[in-house]
Specification:
About 8% of the residues have low confidence. The chain has a domain of 99 residues: Helix Hairpins (Orthogonal Bundle). 48% of the residues lie in helices and 0% in strands. The protein is an all-alpha fold. This is J domain-containing protein.
């Protein structure tokens, strides 16, 4: 009970931060990050550092939890809940605390997607309508916008018509 009451948010272990990875990282990425950090802080490389063994054990624990699918799922639930309780203490409470905390858990963060094609958000209009380009010149970005991203003048689709008429 003292561990629960005396726990502060800054003392809670962040296994993702410890390994230098993210919630969206795969098990393979986590294992690779672990190898890099384990080689850097291995106790055999730093025999005069008394905290090297402790740091290495924390790295091992983080890797074991995050590479195991079930324990990682539990860790993610605990981490997103924001509760100031050590993970091991939360885990020892069993399923009773998990079912009573279902409302506090934030959703998993969305992965950032890279755009596969360039998109143009703004299409500046030409100031002089008499400016005509020769056929062998390279089209400007505004011409590209006008050719590829203009409103269709043909009749709207049936789905769009239903939407506008409040039918769906």
């Amino acid at each position: 009970m003292d561990a629960i009451l005396s726990c502060k948010p800054e003392t809670v272990e962040d296994y993702y931060g410890l390994l230098g990875c993210d919630e969206s990282s795969s098990a393979e990425q986590i294992a690779n990050e672990y190898r890099v950090r384990a080689l850097a802080c291995h106790p055999d490389k730093h025999p005069q550092n008394p905290k090297a063994v402790e740091e290495f054990q924390k790295l091992q624990e983080a890797k074991e939890i995050l590479c195991n699918e079930k324990s990682r799922r539990n860790y993610d639930i605990w981490k997103r809940s924001g509760i100031t309780l050590p993970f091991q203490a939360w885990l020892s409470l069993g399923d009773s605390v998990k079912t009573s905390m279902h409302w506090t858990v934030r959703s998993k963060k969305e992965p950032m997607l890279e755009c596969s094609k360039p998109t143009f958000l703004e299409c500046p209009q030409a100031t002089d309508p008499t400016d005509q380009e020769s056929p062998d010149s390279v089209p400007s970005s505004s011409d590209y916008c006008h050719r590829h991203f203009r409103w269709a003048s043909d009749s709207p689709s049936s789905l769009l018509r239903k939407f506008r008429n409040y039918e769906i």
